[in-house]
Amino acid sequence: MTAAPPDRFLRAAAIVAALFGLATIASGGNALSGGPAARQAAGAYVPFVLWFNFLAGFAYVAAGAGLWLRRRWAAMLALVIAGTTLLVFAAFGVHVLNGGAYEVRTAGAMTLRSLVWIAIGWLAWRRIARLG
Question: Any stretches that span the bilayer, and where are they (predicted)?
Answer without folding.
Answer: 51-69, 76-95, 107-125
